C-alpha cells in the first residue's frame, strides 16, 4: 500500500493555484491520530477580494453560454471527481474522521448533483402572463452574478462540489469557502475546476470563518450567499450582510430532529432505523440526525433496551477500515463540545444506557474518540433535549398521548427533519401535518431522494436545496412588457 498523501493544498483564484496573500497556512489534522496530514492556505480578506473580482470578470461570459454548454462543463467536473474518487476519499477520511463506506457515497452524491443540475439547465424557463389583451408579458430568469458559498465541516466534498452545481447551472460564477476543519478535498476540487472550467468561474478560498468567511459575506459584489452551518454563524452572516448591502441569503442550519414511534409501529424495523438515523458513521455529525427518539410508554422499556444494545454493538475504530461503523469526531473543539453536552445530560438527570464517555487506552492512544452514547428518560427541561450536540449522542423520551408527543417534538428552536413510525395512515399524516419540519420520513430515516427539496423551518434555516427550487433560487425574475403587438 502506498504511503498516505500529505496534501500541500492550494486555493483556486482566477484559474490559478494560489497561496494566501500573506503566505500563511492552516494545518489539517487527522482526528484519529492527531497527526498533521496536510495544510491549506489561510485565505485573507485580500484573497477573497481577488476571488470575487475574478468571479465578477468571468460572470457575463459564463452567463452568456447556452445552458447546454454550462451543463457539459458540469458533467465534465462530475467525471473528473469520479476519476479522483479514491484520492479524495483517502484524504477526506483522514481529514474528517468519517467512515470510508459513507464518504464514497458523498463523492457519488456530489457527482450525481452535478449531473442532476446539468440536466435541469434547460428548465431555466420564465412565464408568460396574459396581463393585457395585446401586449406580451413574460419573464426571464437572470443569474445573480457572483454567488458565495460557505460550507460546514461535515460532508466536505459533497457540500463543496455537489452544491456548486445549481448556482453554476443557473449561470452564476462562484467563490466557495470550505470549512477550515476539512478543506483538503476542496483543494483537490480546485485542481479539477482549474482544469475543466474557464478561469474565474469557480474560485475556492480556504481559511477561517472570521476572516475569509466574513470577507466573503461582506464583499459588495456578492449578492447571493448560500450558507450551510450552525445557527449562530447563520445569524452572524445575516447581521454582517445587512451592514453592506441587500443580499439574498439561503441558510441550511442545525437540527434537533424528532423520531416519533407509535405503539403500532413495526419495532423490528423502527429500532434499528433509530440507530441508523443517528448517522453514527459520521459520528452523529449530520444535520438530519434523529437525535431525539420519542418512544410510546407501551414500548418504552423494550425500545430503550434494544436501542442501547444496538448502539453498544457498533464497532468504533479506524475510519479507513470498511468494518468500522464509527470513527472519531472531527476536531478537538468538536470533541470537547460533545463531552460538555454529555456532562449536561448527567447534571440534568438523564439516565445513561450506552456509551457516555470518551474512548482512551490501548486501542485509542490518540484522537478525538467518543463512545456512541444513548441517554434515556430525557425530558424537555434538560439541555440535552433541546441543544444540538452534532455528535454521537441520542436522547430517548417517553410519551403517552399524541398531543403530548407533538408538543414535545416541536418544543425546540429547530425544525429540520422528522421521522414518524406507525402502520396507521391517518396517524402518520396527522402527525406529519402537526410537526414543524421541512423534510419528514414516514417509516424511514436519513435518505435523501433526488429531486425532493431539503431544508428547514424555524431556526433550521431559510430556503430549500436539492430540487429544482435550488436551481431557481440562484436566479431572479425579470419581467418584460412588450407593446409591439398594439396598433
Ligand atoms: P459553523 O457554523 O461553525 O461553520 C460553518 C462555516 O461557516 C465554516 O466554513 C466556517 O469557517 C464559516 N464561518 C464561521 N464563522 C463565520 C463568520 N463569522 N462569517 C462567515 N463564515 C463563518 O458550522 P460547522 O461546525 O462547520 O457545522 C456544523 C453545523 O452545520 C451544525 O449546526 C449542523 O447542523 C449544520 N449543518 C446543517 C446542514 C443542513 O443542510 N441544514 C448540513 C450540514 C451541517
From TrEMBL:
**Segments forming domain Aldehyde dehydrogenase:** 24-480
- Catalytic center at which residues? 252
Q: Which UniProt keywords apply?
A: Oxidoreductase
Family annotation (InterPro entries): Ald_DH/histidinol_DH (IPR016161), Ald_DH_C (IPR016163), Ald_DH_CS_GLU (IPR029510), Ald_DH_N (IPR016162), Aldehyde_DH_dom (IPR015590)
Residue ranges that the Swiss-Prot or TrEMBL entry lists as coiled coil = none
Gene3D superfamilies in the cross-refs = Aldehyde Dehydrogenase, Chain A, domain 1, Aldehyde Dehydrogenase, Chain A, domain 2
Entry annotated with the keyword Translocase: no
Q: Name one Pfam family in it.
A: Aldedh
Q: Which GO terms describe its molecular function?
A: oxidoreductase activity, acting on the aldehyde or oxo group of donors, NAD or NADP as acceptor
Family of the protein in this entry: Belongs to the aldehyde dehydrogenase family.
Write the protein's name.
Aldehyde dehydrogenase
Q: What is the lineage of its organism?
A: Bacteria, Bacillati, Actinomycetota, Actinomycetes, Pseudonocardiales
Amino acid at each position: 500500500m502506498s504511503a498516505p498523501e500529505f496534501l500541500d493544498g492550494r486555493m483556486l483564484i482566477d484559474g490559478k493555484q494560489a497561496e494566501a496573500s500573506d503566505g500563511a497556512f492552516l494545518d489539517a489534522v487527522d482526528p484519529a491520530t492527531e497527526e498533521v496530514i496536510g495544510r491549506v492556505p489561510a485565505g485573507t480578506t485580500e484573497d477573497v477580494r481577488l476571488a470575487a473580482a475574478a468571479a465578477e470578470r468571468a460572470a457575463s461570459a459564463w452567463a452568456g453560454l447556452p445552458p447546454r454548454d454550462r451543463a457539459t462543463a458540469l458533467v465534465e467536473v462530475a467525471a473528473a471527481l469520479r476519476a479522483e474518487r479514491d484520492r479524495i476519499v483517502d484524504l477526506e477520511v483522514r481529514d474528517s474522521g468519517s467512515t470510508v463506506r459513507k464518504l464514497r457515497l458523498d463523492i457519488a452524491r456530489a457527482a450525481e448533483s452535478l449531473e442532476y443540475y446539468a440536466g435541469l439547465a434547460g428548465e431555466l424557463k420564465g412565464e408568460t402572463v396574459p396581463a393585457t389583451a395585446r401586449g406580451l408579458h413574460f419573464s426571464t430568469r437572470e443569474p445573480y452574478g457572483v454567488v458565495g458559498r460557505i460550507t460546514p465541516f461535515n460532508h466536505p466534498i459533497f457540500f463543496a462540489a455537489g452544491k456548486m452545481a445549481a448556482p453554476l447551472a443557473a449561470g452564476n460564477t462562484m467563490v466557495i469557502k470550505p470549512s477550515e476543519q476539512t478543506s483538503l478535498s476542496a483543494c483537490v476540487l480546485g485542481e479539477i475546476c482549474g482544469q475543466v472550467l474557464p478561469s474565474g468561474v469557480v474560485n475556492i478560498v480556504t481559511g477561517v470563518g472570521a476572516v475569509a468567511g466574513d470577507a466573503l459575506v461582506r464583499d459588495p459584489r456578492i449578492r447571493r450567499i448560500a450558507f450551510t452551518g450552525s445557527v449562530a454563524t447563520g445569524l452572524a452572516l445575516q447581521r454582517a450582510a445587512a451592514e453592506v448591502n441587500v443580499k439574498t441569503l439561503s441558510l441550511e442550519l442545525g437540527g434537533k430532529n424528532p423520531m416519533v414511534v407509535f405503539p403500532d409501529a413495526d419495532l423490528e424495523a423502527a429500532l434499528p432505523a433509530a440507530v441508523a438515523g443517528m448517522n453514527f458513521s459520521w459520528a452523529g455529525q449530520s444535520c438530519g440526525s434523529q437525535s431525539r427518539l420519542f418512544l410510546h410508554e407501551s414500548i418504552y422499556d423494550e425500545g430503550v433496551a434494544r436501542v442501547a444494545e444496538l448502539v453498544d454493538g457498533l464497532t468504533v475504530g479506524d475510519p479507513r477500515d470498511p468494518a468500522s461503523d464509527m470513527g472519531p469526531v472531527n476536531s478537538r473543539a468538536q470533541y470537547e463540545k460533545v463531552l460538555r453536552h454529555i456532562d449536561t445530560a448527567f447534571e440534568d438527570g438523564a439516565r445513561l444506557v450506552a456509551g457516555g464517555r470518551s474512548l482512551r487506552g490501548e486501542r485509542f492512544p490518540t484522537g478525538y474518540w467518543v463512545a456512541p452514547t444513548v441517554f434515556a428518560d430525557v425530558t424537555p427541561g434538560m439541555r440535552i433535549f433541546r441543544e444540538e450536540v452534532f455528535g454521537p449522542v441520542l436522547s430517548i423520551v417517553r410519551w403517552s398521548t399524541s398531543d403530548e408527543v407533538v408538543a414535545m417534538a416541536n418544543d425546540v428552536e429547530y425544525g429540520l427533519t422528522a421521522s414518524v413510525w406507525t402502520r396507521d395512515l391517518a396517524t402518520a399524516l396527522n402527525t406529519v401535518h402537526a410537526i414543524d419540519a421541512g423534510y419528514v420520513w414516514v417509516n424511514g430515516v436519513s435518505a435523501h431522494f433526488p429531486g425532493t427539496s431539503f431544508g428547514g423551518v424555524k431556526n433550521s434555516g431559510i430556503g430549500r436545496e436539492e430540487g429544482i427550487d435550488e436551481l431557481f433560487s440562484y436566479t431572479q425574475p425579470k419581467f418584460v412588457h412588450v407593446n409591439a403587438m398594439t396598433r
